[in-house]
Amino acid sequence: MFKALMSKFKESVISVLPVAVIVLIISFTPLTDFTWQEQVTFAVCSVLLIIGISLFNLGADLAMTPMGEHIGSGLTKSKKVGVLISVCFVMGVLITVAEPDLSVLAEQVADIIQNTVLIVTVGVGVGLFLVLAVLKIIFKKNLSTLLMFFYMMLFALSALLIDSGKNNFLALSFDSGGVTTGPITVPFIMALGVGIATTIGGRNANENSFGLIAMCSIGPILAVAILALTSNGTISNDSLQAIVDGYVTSEELGVAVGHAVLNTVKNVVIALGLVVAFFLVLQFTVLKLPKKKMIQIAIGIAYTFFGLVIFLVAVEIGYMPIGFKLGQSIAKFNPAVLVAFGFGIGMVVVLAEPAVHVLNRQVEEITGGGVKKVEMLVALSAAVGISICLSIVRMIYKFSVLYYLVPGYLISLGLSFFVPKIYTAIAFDSGGVASGPLTSSFILPLIVGACVALNDGSASNILTDAFGVVAMVAMTPLITIQALGFKAVTSAKVRNKITMKRILSSDDEQIIYFK
Prior knowledge:
It is built from 21 helices and no strands. By secondary structure, it is mainly alpha-helical. Helix 7 packs across helix 21.
């Protein structure tokens, strides 16, 4: 166990260190006016972030992934489709409620949409689309066709939002889909897909095990868009200002830490408690796993709990306020520098997302090394860097996020017809995974801070101009990962063509015919 923990610690250091070093170096330059207390707080929180990610990743391996696999395989073996669908819906709602990314986003927009309303709406969206994803595996339906249909529906709803004058909710809807698939959701849902696909079997079992994250990312966007269409309220400037005020705390550091710890412990206990309670019901009624396996899962849940608490407290105390102030400072200095910084920080921030490492590890295992972790990381880093860079450009020139999202999704959906289906499934899963806790709690505050600075301290444009960055982070990996697949297909065709040419051009006398 200690050896495994040290391995996770090493991975976490490599992941978090680039972000921490870049921010700390910039904090000592004329670009910013950070106090020494802020610098120390950020450094300490970076260490806590490393510890939190290490504990969480070990907990995911010991608990969340086995729980998902056992639920998927156990319920599939029972051959009761109704029970499987019902359980998947409930688990989809519960793990969404447990998702820290969503809590972070809901906390930031609480003055616009009540926390509980947003979380429950997103949870129902995830539950419904998890059911659809499971049915896709059972009935072996084409993922590309389903994605095409639902994204067309999504664009139609976006047009209705704009037509009804509620385009303020557009970026928030897409961001909701990005934050839903985070450190708790990804290991559980991916393992659930693996458990169901391997139990059903078939020659496309590996391919069918992917795509659940992709489907579960669509549900929240549709759900929040429908919620916005059916609501009658309006967004006041006071509500928008309250969002900005939430990034800057006037409390003493000790009081702020105490409040963050208590609040986080309460939220994680409730969230994980719901998932564990439901799993125990399944254990005693359907699964009946051996005692040794249950002890391992219990230890894993403990690691997951402490890892999440440490991670979320570090993010709230150190990363969210620093991100906001950093965005303000660099935007005031020079917007062009902000664009370059956005690209650089985007390339490294994805390394610190816990769920990214879970996905990369499972991809390499399931594809038998066909898709390597290093290739995935490089593709994701480039994608996130580009997405944040483009988001800052959009914020500066003030145009709708749909100018990026519509052509981006059309390109990615178009590529799905030319690359192996497993690459499409991995790509759409990667999009949901890349937009994790640091995106919603560091990158989003950074963009909001820059937006406020560029609008002379006004918060009136943050929903339309700053929000949407999470959606961009979720969209660009779809293209880069499928580009890997397209490259693999093209390279294979070129190799086959060269091989056939050599065979055909060889001397006929060298060919021996056997009668």
